[in-house]
Amino acid sequence: MSLLEDSILNMSVAMNVSVDTDTNYYVIQKDIVIMIKKICYFGIIPILIVSGLILNALCCVMFYKLKSKTSTVVILVALAATDIFILLTAIVYVIKIVSIYAGVPLTANQMIQMLPYFDGFMAAVPNRIGNILTFMLSAERLLCVLKPMTVKHYFTRKTTVISVLMTYALTLIVSLPQGFYFRAVKMYSNDTGTIMMVYVIKPTRLGQFVDFTDSYNIVLTCVFTFVPVFGVMLMSTLTGIVVIISGRRRFQITEGMTKAITSKEMHVTKTLLTITFTFTICQLPGAIGMMIIFIEMKPYRYTSNVFEVVMAISYILFLLNSTVNFIIYYKTSRTYRDKIKSIFICYGKCRERHHRRDT
């Protein structure tokens, strides 16, 4: 579900305006839906955002301090940076949702002016980049366990940096048309009994081609959501099977010997498998929800307010995926755990030195 459509829908629900002439839309009582969304957007999501920003910043510091900058580390650094962008856009999104229900800090006109630029383009791009990077990470790890001797010739640090930069650039370019679907336009309104100028969302010339925009949205959703989510799920499953079959065969690979996963690669694989499985679990509910909407032939339109609840909960899982990687590194990798501990030890020593100087 695009944040643009979701924001417009949230505005309509908050203002008690019917979003559908069909009375079957309100499967769940409106007050219950509003209560659930307030719990999500006023309580759970802000906590996830703050925690995620701190933890991803620590991830970047940890990777910076690593001596070995492998292709895997390059993807993980890009993923941490992308997660920070996702969480920053989530701040703006949550402020907008809170303003709908609380009336502060954005007025309706200010929020409407933001919608075409922020929700239509800026908020969507980091999510899509994160999905593609996770897909790349999963593909790289599958190749590592299947072709451990040849994969290093293709997944070098240089080629990985180029791939990451191309992912950022191509995602920006491909997503650009969505920023031109709608515009905020001033018009006179006398809904309150007083004639005044208000902003309304109007489709541009491009946005008026509904068949094209719907088809384009479906293609982008398939490429940047369905393919990465289900692709990561498949590749992670295959990687897990190979790791299990490999078992405890942790001898060093030499020419003429069986190609098995080394002990170091085994630890890295387990860490990355945990990341990709977490990605799948967190992204799957939202992907299934969007698939149901598309199957019902109503792209980017809710058919009942059940989807409002499902998408709010899916958004929590989505942000959770951008928050937990630091914890996964600490729990699954001794190398990363030691590096994380060294960061806090260095920070403690620096504070102690400053304290001694002050005294």
From TrEMBL:
Coiled-coil ranges from the UniProt annotation: none
Keywords: Membrane, Transmembrane, Transmembrane helix
Location, primary (coarse class): membrane
UniProt domain G-protein coupled receptors family 1 profile: residue ranges: 55-329
Naturally occurring in which organism (per UniProt): Mytilus galloprovincialis (Mediterranean mussel)
GO cellular component, one term: membrane
One Pfam family this sequence matches: 7tm_1
Annotated protein name in UniProt: G-protein coupled receptors family 1 profile domain-containing protein
Transmembrane segments: 41-64, 73-95, 115-139, 160-181, 218-245, 272-295, 307-330
Protein origin, superkingdom: Eukaryota
Cellular localisation: Membrane
Lineage: Eukaryota, Metazoa, Spiralia, Lophotrochozoa, Mollusca
An annotated Gene Ontology molecular function: G protein-coupled receptor activity
